[in-house]
């Protein structure tokens, strides 16, 4: 993305997938069938370990049944969010890129979930051939503002509302641009980081 910046290593590991935990849904909701989700995550872990063949498209298309009446599986929003991270990881590996930084766990009041260095290191893959991505120069310029905001506070810095309102134009004709899904997912992480600061 930004010239001269070293790429970040992949962030998701088979062990992390094996330790994934999801809450039970609220009363009155059934969620996703826990056993089916666990089975799929085993396939994901095997793929990340080099012993499986799942693709990002497989993750995009996967569906899970609901538990039997009276049962409660996993919260659908948490599973869907985790599947988005898995899909980005597999897309990055398939395209030789690197995923956006993951949110860090905050045990004992740990550090920020996103740092200026994380923003500098992030790489986005190119958009699929039949869809124009976001203009790369616009995204890069905006991420420079994000990095500056995370490094400083005060007048002129971005807010979570600013990030929610940003709109990038499509890539110029003849260029692919950045994957819209990856950029949008990263902006969600930026919003969370800025909200945490305030």
From TrEMBL:
Residues 1-21, 93-112 are annotated as: Disordered. InterPro entries: DivIVA_domain, DivIVA_fam. The keyword Coiled coil applies. It is found in: Cytoplasm. Keywords: Cell cycle, Cell division, Coiled coil, Cytoplasm. Belongs to the DivIVA family. This is Cell wall synthesis protein Wag31.
